[in-house]
Amino acid sequence: MIGITIFAATDVTLSVQCVNLCTVDEISDPKRRVHANFARKGNSVNHIYLPYIIGGDSPIPYLFEKITPHMNEELFVPTIYRFEGEEFYTNFIETVQMSNTNKLQRILQYGRTSLKNYDLIHTGGHAPRHIPISKCSRIRNPNIRHIHSFRVDVNPDSNFQTDRRQQLAEMADMTTAVSKHTATTVKQEFGFDPIVIYNGVDTDLFHSNYEKPPLLSRLDKNDPVFMFVGSLDSRKRPSDIIKVARQVPEATFLLIGDGPLYENLIAESRDLENVHLTGRIDKKRLPAIYANATGFLFPTIREGCPNVVLEAMASGLPVVGYETTSMPELVTTGKTGYLASPCDVNQLAEHVRSICENSDVTAMGEQARNYIEENHTFENIAAQYESLYLELLE
Questions:
Q1: What integer is the mean pLDDT of 17-32?
Q2: pLDDT tens column, 147-206
Q3: Which residues belong to CATH 3.40.50.2000 in the chain?
Q4: CATH number of the structural domain 214-375
Q5: Which end of the chain is more exposed for a tag (fewer CB within 10 A), N or C?
Q6: Comparing C-alpha atoms, which of 374, 290, 291, 385 is closest to residue 332?
Q7: Burial call 344-370: b when 16+ CB within 10 Å, e when fewer
Q8: Which of 199, 170, 168 is nearest to 182 (CA)?
């Protein structure tokens, strides 16, 4: 059992039913036409193995938690893990309960359920975990199809899982990436040419119609509020926010999250009254905070397709960041936000000040929301992955 290191799979024997959609020529919806063509060829319901545990804070399981309910239940039976206490009410999705605390129990569950029979596996997370998962999934079905997704830019200067990420991609029949920039880094470093499918956002949850939350009320100020959400580590450059705060004292800056730079940032901002570090807060509180902020400040230099930027834009916030990584694919300067030259803090501060002084900032937020609704709904993202699944399974 070499493969039992950490996996994900199904714990239920699933019945296979044939789908009969005969009136293909009468279907105008391109997505449904693909489904109908697939079904008319006599294909069965397909068991899709998603090796992720929903219920935590990781953005990758969150994506699959949100897109699987939008999949065609006549064609797919997805399987995914859930932590104890997490409910997932969707009839056609198989979930396997995992221990929140007992690592040995999780390993045993991974090992047992990874040996079930699946038609397709979709990896994209922790490579040392997903390599043995993928190998074990082939024991029961040597012909299982495999998609691997790259979720963050490949960094040639980092040894973090680089070799294993390449190994996992080499095992796959198809690769995807969550942004054009991420795809470019994959091609440069590994030689693959991934298909680009961006991340999605819950537009019903993230919107601008929330009352002012207690966190912002306690600031007792009417100053413009610029927020940051994410890990406080070097690639997201949170120290640049402190530098901007010194140049724009008329605005308040709210940093939500924790990480290795937290204590350093506390020390750097000790003399500033317009900087507040909240630490990590419950993600359920975020929508109301987004909705009542003025802008989103995200000076990252390496990402994939940052969920927090999508959440901010869905909430009607203009975004300020650097013109690097995937940010130019998401933010249009002067329309949905502003992008500064990479690592140019002075220009970053100018853009923040522009939003503070812009009487038409609401229109900019509306355009950000419109962009999200047109491109990043979970229904849209689910349809794109479904098409790839069908392409591989035909």
A1: 36
A2: 999 999 998 777 777 888 999 999 999 999 999 999 999 999 999 999 999 999 999 999
A3: 24-198+378-393, 214-375
A4: 3.40.50.2000
A5: C
A6: 374
A7: ebebbbbbbbebbeeeebeebbebbbe
A8: 199
Only one residue has tokens 């994939």, namely: 304
**CB neighbours of residue 227 within 10 Å:** 27
What's the topology of domain 24-198+378-393? Rossmann fold (3.40.50)
d(CA 338, CA 352): 8
Q: Which of 175, 49, 174, 65 is CA-nearest to residue 110?
A: 49
What is the rounded CA–CA span in Å between residue 385 and residue 284?
27
pTM: 0.87
Encoded tokens for 272: 């500033």
CA 274 to CA 252: how far, in whole Å? 5
Asked if 335 contacts 363 with a C-beta cutoff of 8 angstroms, the reply is: no
Written as six digits, the tokens of 363 are 């229109």
pLDDT level of residue 89 (50, 70, 90 thresholds)? low
Over residues 47-86, the pLDDT tens digits come to 999 999 988 778 889 999 999 999 999 999 999 999 887 7
294 neighbors 226 (Cβ within 8 angstroms)? yes
Residue 290, classed as helix, strand or coil, is helix
**Roughly how many angstroms between the first and final C-alpha of the chain, as a whole number?**
31
Give the contacts of 151 (CB within 8 A, at least 6 positions apart): 59, 60, 124, 125, 178, 182, 304
More confident residue, 65 or 39: 65
Tell me the one-letter amino acid at 265. L
